[in-house]
Amino acid sequence: MTQARKITLRINGHDETVTVPAHRTLLEALRDSGHVEVKRGCEKGDCGACAVLVDDVAIDSCLTLAWSAAGKQITTVTGLGTPDDPHPLQVAFRDLGAAQCGFCTPGMIIAAQGLLAENPDPSDDDIRLALSGNLCRCTGYAKILDAVAQAAAVMRAGGEGS
Amino acid sequence: MSSIVKTDDSANISYRQVGKPLPRSDAAGKVFGKTPYAGDYVLPGMLHMHVVRADMASAALVRLDVEKARALPGVVAVLTAADLPDNMAATDIPGQTGQKRLDTDQQVLVRARVKYFGEPLALIAAETPDIAARAAALVSFELKPMPGVYDPLEAMQPGAPMVQGHDNIVATHKIRKGDAAAGLAAADIVVENTFRTPFQEHAFLEPEAGLAWIDENEVINIRVCTQVIEHFRAIADAVGVPHNKIRIRGALVGGGFGGKEDVTVEIYLALMAMKTGRPVRLEYSREDSFLGHGKRHPFILTYKTGLMRDGRICGLDVEIIADSGAYVFLSPYVLLYGAVSAPGPYRVDNLNVHARAVATNNMFTSAFRGFGGMQACAAYEQQMDECARALGMDRIAFRRLNYLKTGDEISTGFIPPSAIWTEECADLAWQKLGGELPAQAKQPAGPLRRGRGLAAYQQSYGRLTFLHDTSEAWVGVEVDGTVIVRSGVTDIGAGQASALGQIVAEVLGVTLDDVIIYNSDSAVTPLAGTTTATRALYMTGNAAKMAAEALRTRLVERAAKALGVAPDGVELSANRAFVADDPDQGMAFIELVKLCAAEGTHRSELVNFQAPFSDHLDAETGQGQAHPDYTFGAHAVEVSVDSETGEVRVLRSVAVHDIGQCINRAAVEGQIEGAAQNGQGYALSEEMLYEQGRLITPSFSEYLMPTSMDMPRIEISLLESRSGLGPYGAKGIGEPAISPVAPAIANAVADAIGVRVFEMPITPERVLKALNNG
After folding, report:
1. Which contiguous run of DSSP H or E holds residue B174?
2. Does A136 contact B205 at a Cβ distance shorter than 8 Å?
3. How many other CB atoms are there within 10 angstroms of residue B499's CB atom?
4. Residue B471's beta-bridge partner residues?
5. pLDDT tens-digit series, residues A107-128
6. Does A97 sit within 8 Å of B23, measured CB to CB?
7. Is the pTM of this model over 0.90?
8. Which of A36, A82, A139 is nearest residue B670 as measured by Cβ atoms?
9. Which residues contact B450 (CB under 8 A, 6 or more apart)?
């Protein structure tokens, strides 16, 4: 066991100081500090449920050590938008029925945002590839793919989507 | 996107809420990250649990030493079988019936004998998860290997190691209808084949999790992800407290599919809360989840079909062997579904089914979406293609000669009360796919082969009728005109709660936004029964509709008095009560409710909906009623097969189902699309590899379910016969949607490569082997 160290994580625009040992993953650090919207599905990087944006890049927080994220911008699904100020992806996922059990949804939305930040006009294949590390057992991905495509179109048009 | 292509609109009704693609009431919470799941709850002072598991599948427990673990600072309690009362955990069918079979119970922790890999040995509670994990590593145990049996056929042989009872056969079902032997003897052609279906993991994204605490009334509260809050009774029996001292507070479930139908973490949590007096939390790792809940039963199905030259089926003999694993759990019922479904949606007057479930030292098997009916479908639809081939007939025309029609008897002699639109569904699915591929399209240049396949099905909705299923619901209106629904129904992600809101909104003439639904609490929401068996909409929907209608009657009577018309002249819609013939004459819904409140009118209603009750099926003939009703439909696919690598890709996937009446269009489509993924994985890639009972694929990098790269868009057409037993004539779709997917794929692969792979999953290795042998 290593000594715990105090680090500052910039989570959804707010600095939060946590004390964690070297082996603590970003997933554990986030969940332990109340960010339970980040889901724990496998802890092996197989399922994508724990995806967060670190400096706008979608990563599996279960494969990332908390120390390595110190000082970086971390965005979870709650930081992406709120009911009063929703992100187009959240609007599309909600309105098109892309969330069924909802457990993969936070990671899916984050992975989709990671794609759209890089490629605002993705093809169907681009979307499929970007989401291929995020497993879903409920939807067959159909409405998720629809939702990402719709959100991309809304964002290209400069809208909020709501 | 789906289209509704055929609706029985003789009733000439239109709905305002029902059937609309409304966002579900649970959707917003999920996309904004606001919905708490069972693993997200914490309490001050809570402990963290860890389960220590056996690393052999068949062994005697010689020594179990937990003293080092107990001595680790931060460890608060370690429980072994020696610390527990001698109670067993019921594995029998859950729910509110109180019925229970003998000899089905499981030891909570291993006392002397390990029967499957991963069986729990000890429970640890510690101040932190890290300490609990370190303590688990300090538990020392010695297992002495004992002869095990890992194949159900071997388990039936004389001298096989005994896992259950005196012959390892844990259930038998027979169906005898007409004279199968005579039918087969009179046949022009007899086609015989054996099909094998695999274990399957539910692979819900949310691993099992729960939090338990004891409240000021000595009630053990358990916040847990479960499909069945009615387990509070079995949990109470297992830990030795009265039934009213266990309260299950279900959370929104991150996927179930039958894998959260049995008790999972609840008993461990209750025992540890009792032992420590502190709140305790247990969250399974993914590997724990793979080891901790029952799988889909592998079936071995042998079909012997007698055919007349003209294509009629004149006799059918089916032998089914199901692997029940080390404990019984729901095997007898899964087997019964398989037996009842054995001939599929076809008329077979001379039928003999002999089905047995056999204990082995494999992982125990229990409920999984499709519940035996899916395994039967995997076989009977491949067999139908093989029969057509033997006859030299078109496979769709052959099916058409034999489909059950509305009013026909099924295998048990029961006549389903609803429409049987199999032919309509199958014809449309095949037509949408484009029919048979021409020979040159099947073998373009290069190694790729293409093929098409179809499968039709019959799948029940509603629980076995001899279980006497019931569902309660409560509906009330608040003085501000908002509506409250209370139903114990667990919401496992298919919109079970939201559907009740839509139905109640329809009846009371308000909108879904006006309704709040409280569900899934065994103490304060009326018990609505399990979210299993494709019964949730049928049972809880009918109950909510009945309660809302009873309330509506009272509200409408008051409105009629105020408006000076007869009650049947009053309409409730768009948050108003008004004269149906003169809509301007009316009042706001809120004013009506205020009027009722001022006069002390009872503004709520509690009802109990009953499914049809029946006796057990006849033990010798299997004749009688098994289920309330059945859903019918078909799935058709086109695949490509790489003849060099054996890889199968699903190029197109077409689903056509008679769902009776759509309640929420997006939710129905979601069920069908998800079923396509789950069924495709079952057919092609999801493989649980066991070595002497030891699971060697306990992760999502080894157990491969289809990703976004693997799934085609599902082309869906919905038929609405409005003939079902659910609210507004709805049938169920959760399980029906999955059954035909895998056999449709298998038939397409056989069409592509000209030989059949008789064992699923149809992996590249099996494809190449079939090609080499063919």
Report:
1. strand B169-177
2. yes
3. 27
4. B609
5. 999 999 999 999 999 999 999 9
6. yes
7. yes
8. A139
9. B437, B441, B442, B443, B444, B638, B639, B640, B641, B651, B752
